Every structure is written in structure tokens, then in C-alpha cells.
């Protein structure tokens, strides 16, 4: 791969995702664990891990607790990801995912991350600057820990835009609202995040599309809205596509949205048209759903899932026009 087309992800608040299987989980009762698995994660780390599975060269940066960095370092080494994380005092947080296969329910218990100091942020700025020469794509993902200004992403997007980089932003709340004002190239909210952003319920697909188009008017190139089983919308100034996934057996929902971001960026870097970007993004999310931990199934399975994704052109005149999933 051309050295100047590599991807960097920035994760301000990474986490160790501890997936705990408890059939018949009940709050307020004694619960017995059937199995447990701990994976280094956090949204940008997951995106990078999935991109590595898709065959891309990736660098990872952000803020990483020094006291338990070894699990992350093992992942970076195993997937040949360049480690540009800034080590900070304390432990990276743990997010507990209680998986109840009996009821198909997942309960999240998310801890706060260690606080960042002004010196940590200066070192992070230097780390990101060191990636500019060799990385054209930057994916900024996840929440911000204590000590990080709420407009951090917005300022970083401005700097990356000025350097001619393609920026994808995947966060929520105030960091998303402020980040959008800096005009990243693409964003990927889910329905709840989009409703919070626009300040109103979005009861149907038409309302979601209208909200996405209002965001495009603010200078964003593409809005991807993930809608769970209802698929995902991919909206640009001249296209509006709905990707409908086939049913799969879900092992874990951890990282599915991050896999969608990874598949979307991978397809864009390959120069694929938006319909195929939608297929690879959706297939990657489906692949993540069938795995435990931040990994994708082998390429032939992703290709098979791509062929099962239905893409509907909502902007087509007259009745909605379905594109064949196969070429």
C-alpha cells in the first residue's frame, strides 16, 4: 500500500471490554458466570483493529493508561498497528458487558477513564502531528475523559482539515455537535445520537433522512446513520442509500458500529462507489456481530455477507429502486 494513504485512529478514552456471559442474568440476585473474555477496545482501537483485519496499514493514537497498557500493546503487535498512543498516569478503564444469551440482552457497565493533564494533551498533539506526513485518513472516535476540553475534536478537525486530511468523526453529545461545526468529511451517528443532536424525535425514515440532509448543509460530505436491524442510511449531497442487512446469529454487539466505520473507510480508500461502501460497511458490522472481541471473520465470509446486503436507492425518482447485491 502507498505509504501516504495509511489510516490513523484517535481514541481519547479507550477501554478494556470485559464480556461476561451470564445466562438468565438478574439484577439484585446472585449470578454465575459461564465464560469471560477481556479485549482491548474503545471505539478508535476497535476501528483500527477491524481495518487491520481488512488488510490496511493503521496507526493508533490517543490517551492510554500506563498501568495496564500491556493488553493493548499485545493487540497492536499482533495486528501490526503502529503505536502512537500517549501513556498517561493510571489505568485504562474497564467496560463490563453482561451477555445474557437466554434473553438475547446485553447490559453495559461503563467506568470513567483516567483524567488527562494539560501536559498529556501537549504530548498527544505532538503524537498526532507526527502522523500527518504518512496518513491521509483520520478516524476520531469515542467519548472524551476528564481533563479533555469538550471542543477537543472540533479543534483537531480544523487542524486536520487545514492539513488536507479526510476526517471521520464518531462520537456523541456536545463533542459531536461542536465537531460537526468544524466540518469533518463524514460522521456516523446512531439513531439515538442523531435525535440528541437535532433535538427532536425521528419517528420514521423520512425524518432521519431530513435530519441527515440538514447536517450535509453544514459542510459534511457524508452522513452514515446506523439503525440496528433496520440497516443503515448513507447520505451524501447527491445520493441517499439504505443498506438492509441479512439476519445473522449475534454473539456480541460490542464494536459493531466501529466495524461499520472501518468498512466504510476501507471501501472509500479502495475508491468504491457509495453503494459498495454501504455493502462493505454493513457486512463488516455484521461480521463483528458474529465474533467475540474486536475482530472480523475471514475475508470470504465478509464477501458473502456483502452479497447478502440489499441496497435501496431512496433518492431514485418514483418508487424506491433496489440495486442487486451482486454485480
Task: Please outline the helices and strands.
Layout: E1 6-11, E2 15-21, E3 35-41, H1 43-53, E4 58-65, H2 70-78, E5 82-88, E6 93-100, E7 105-110, H3 118-129, E8 135-141, H4 152-162, E9 166-170, H5 173-181, E10 186-187, H6 191-198, H7 205-216, E11 222-226, E12 232-235, E13 240-244, H8 256-269, H9 274-289, H10 299-308, E14 310-313, E15 321-323
Parallel strand pairs: 1-4, 1-8, 2-6, 4-5, 8-9, 9-10, 10-11
Antiparallel strand pairs: 2-3, 6-7, 11-12, 12-13, 13-14, 14-15
Helix pairs in contact: 1-8, 4-5, 8-9, 9-10
Characterization of this structure:
This protein has 327 residues and is of the alpha/beta class. It has a single domain (3-24, 35-323), classed as UDP-N-acetylmuramoyl-L-alanine:D-glutamate ligase, CATH 3.40.1190.20. The chain contains 10 helices and 15 strands. The protein has helices at 43-53, 70-78, 118-129, 152-162, 173-181, 191-198, 205-216, 256-269, 274-289, 299-308; strands spanning 6-11, 15-21, 35-41, 58-65, 82-88, 93-100, 105-110, 135-141, 166-170, 186-187, 222-226, 232-235, 240-244, 310-313, 321-323. The strands form 2 sheets. The chain has an 11-stranded mixed sheet with strand order 5-4-1-8-9-10-11-12-13-14-15, sandwiched between helices. A 4-stranded mixed sheet has the order 3-2-6-7. Helix 4 (152-162) links the parallel strand 8 (135-141) and strand 9. The two termini are 26 Å apart.
The largest sheet has its strands arranged as 5-4-1-8-9-10-11-12-13-14-15
SSE arrangement, N to C: EEEHEHEEEHEHEHEHHEEEHHHEE
| Contiguous runs where pLDDT drops below 50 for at least 5 residues | 317-327
Radius of gyration: 19 Å
Number of strands: 15
Amino acid at each position: 500500500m502507498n505509504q501516504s494513504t495509511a489510516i490513523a485512529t484517535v481514541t481519547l478514552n479507550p477501554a478494556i471490554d470485559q464480556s461476561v456471559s451470564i445466562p438468565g442474568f438478574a439484577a439484585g440476585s446472585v449470578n454465575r458466570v459461564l465464560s469471560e473474555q477481556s479485549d482491548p477496545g474503545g471505539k478508535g482501537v476497535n476501528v483500527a483493529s477491524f481495518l487491520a483485519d481488512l488488510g490496511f496499514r493503521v496507526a493508533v493514537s490517543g490517551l492510554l493508561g500506563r498501568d495496564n497498557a500491556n493488553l493493548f500493546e499485545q493487540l497492536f503487535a499482533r495486528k501490526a498497528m503502529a503505536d502512537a498512543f500517549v501513556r498517561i498516569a493510571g489505568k485504562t478503564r474497564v467496560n463490563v458487558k453482561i451477555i445474557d444469551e437466554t434473553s438475547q440482552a446485553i447490559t453495559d457497565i461503563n467506568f470513567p477513564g483516567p483524567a488527562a493533564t494539560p501536559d498529556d494533551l501537549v504530548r498527544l498533539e505532538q503524537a498526532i502531528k507526527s502522523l500527518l506526513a504518512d496518513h491521509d485518513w483520520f478516524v476520531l472516535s469515542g467519548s472524551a475523559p476528564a481533563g479533555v476540553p469538550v471542543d477537543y475534536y472540533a479543534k483537531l478537525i480544523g487542524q486536520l482539515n487545514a492539513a488536507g486530511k479526510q476526517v471521520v468523526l464518531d462520537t456523541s453529545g456536545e463533542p459531536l455537535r461542536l465537531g460537526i461545526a468544524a466540518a469533518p468529511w463524514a460522521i456516523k451517528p446512531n439513531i439515538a445520537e442523531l435525535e440528541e443532536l437535532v433535538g427532536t424525535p425521528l419517528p420514521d425514515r423520512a425524518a432521519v433522512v431530513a435530519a441527515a440532509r440538514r447536517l450535509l448543509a453544514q459542510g459534511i460530505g457524508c452522513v452514515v446513520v446506523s439503525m440496528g436491524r433496520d440497516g443503515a442510511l448513507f447520505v451524501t449531497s447527491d445520493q441517499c442509500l439504505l443498506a438492509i442487512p441479512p439476519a445473522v446469529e449475534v454473539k456480541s454487539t460490542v464494536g459493531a458500529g466501529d466495524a461499520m466505520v472501518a468498512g466504510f473507510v476501507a471501501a472509500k480508500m479502495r475508491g468504491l462507489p457509495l453503494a459498495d461502501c454501504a455493502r462493505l460497511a454493513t457486512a463488516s458490522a455484521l461480521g463483528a456481530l458474529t465474533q467475540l472481541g474486536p475482530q472480523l471473520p475471514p475475508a470470504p465470509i465478509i464477501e458473502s455477507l456483502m452479497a447478502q446486503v440489499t441496497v435501496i436507492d431512496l433518492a431514485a425518482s418514483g418508487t424506491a429502486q433496489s440495486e442487486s447485491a451482486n454485480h
